[in-house]
Amino acid sequence: MLAAAPPVIDPSDPVAVVALKRQLQFAYLKIQLLEERLRLERIQKYGPASEKLNDAQLELLEEEPGVSNLEVVVESEREPLPAAAPLQPRRTRQHPGRQALPANLERIERVIPGSPEQSRCTHCGEPTEVIGYEQSEQLDVEPAKYFVLVIKREKRGCRCCHRGVVTAPAPARIIEKSLVSDRVVIDTVIAKYCDHLPLYRQSAMLEREAGLEISRATLDGWVMAVGQLLIPLVAVMRMELLWGGYIQADETPVDVQTRGALWARRGKNHQAYLWQYGRPGGGVVFEFQMGRGRAGPKQFLGGFEGILQTDGYIGYEKVGGPRMVHVACWAHYPDSSVIWSSPADRPIGRAAQMVGSR
Predict the structure, then answer these.
(1) Is 302:315 a contact under the CB 8 Å cutoff?
(2) Whole-angstrom Cα distance, residue 275 to residue 287?
(3) Which residue in 27, 215, 228, 250 is a FRET match for 221, CA 20 to 30 A apart?
(4) Domain ranges (residues) in the chain
(5) Residue 21 neighbours by CB distance under 10 Å
(6) How far apart are CA 220 and CA 222, in angstroms?
(7) pLDDT in tens, 131-187
(8) Residues 6+ apart with CB under 8 A from 104
């Protein structure tokens, strides 16, 4: 990479000096052109993700015996290293101290008595008295406790006429006549979607901690039942998005097991898609579709007439209402048709420079 600027010709310079400076200018421009060509060759070799790398990083890739596309992507997404600062005398920082535990947590005191030797004074032999405590705090936990909740509904009858027996109504439940309570079902859903704990692991944990064998298929039925109850809420979230004036949409592949389906390929999962619709600071709705066709977004958006922002996928064309405005994203602008010599030359790079200069 060229570090110095080309020489500037001064009219007062001798003819020989001017000729040498012209040769240096030509050599400078030729080297710059060759470096740009070399950069383009390396970008074509390592893929579009290498556009974000500088010349020094691309040169390091050339020295590696074998570099995968994944390594190039990871390197391009890494934050740039800060500029080296001059060495300064090291200053000793004060230790911030131990982090305080949250004040809203319940405090349970455990008093540790002194040893028998501490019960008498080592100087005079008289009994000692408690004059205070050396106190410290520790975060503790109680393991989950499983128990059987016995529901007893009152049955009432008249002792006078002995007519009619009434029973207290049963409370509404997520799964009627289920072996487990609503709390166990809700904990299963939270563990799956908030803690990313698969159902087969939860099944093993129930067997280990409660001695109860519940199959993964049964746990899956619990999750599906909760999903059915949330469908009206999802419909309200969808309407809230459509009533707004701006929606961001994208899709991501997800493998689906199609065991037993006539059209399924043997030994392979089917590639379905999760379509995401949302807006910054608002709700997000995921819609599952077995394919990536236009029917998915067309059905979800309906007659939407606001602003729809997506990438360049053709499936988002001809969706929404007649007054809908379809806008693109600078980050996806023509990566496939144009190779930029440096990240700053791309439209997103130039836009960032314009915003930063204001």
Answers:
(1) no
(2) 5
(3) 250
(4) 15-75, 180-236
(5) 16
(6) 5
(7) 999 998 898 988 888 999 999 999 999 888 888 889 999 999 999 989 899 999 999
(8) none
What is the Cα–Cα distance from 105 to 183, expressed in whole angstroms?
Answer: 22
Which 8-state DSSP code applies to residue 336? T
Average the pLDDT over 182-204 and give the result.
Answer: 95
Burial class (CB in 10 A: 0-12, 13-18, 19+), 346: buried
Distance, in Å, from the CA atom of 348 to the CA atom of 352, rounded to the nearest integer, reads 6
The number of residues making up the chain comes to 358
The tally of CA atoms less than 13 A away on the side-chain side of residue 22 is: 8
Structure tokens at 340: 């930029």
**Cα angle 320-326-328, degrees, rounded to a multiple of 5:** 145
Structure tokens at 350: 């130039």
> DSSP letters along 144-164, please?
-----------EEE-TTT---
* Residue 292 near residue 270, CB atoms below 8 Å: no
- Backbone region of residue 41 per phi and psi (left: phi > 0; alpha: psi in -120 to 50; beta: other values): alpha
Question: What are the tokens at 16?
Answer: 């020989």
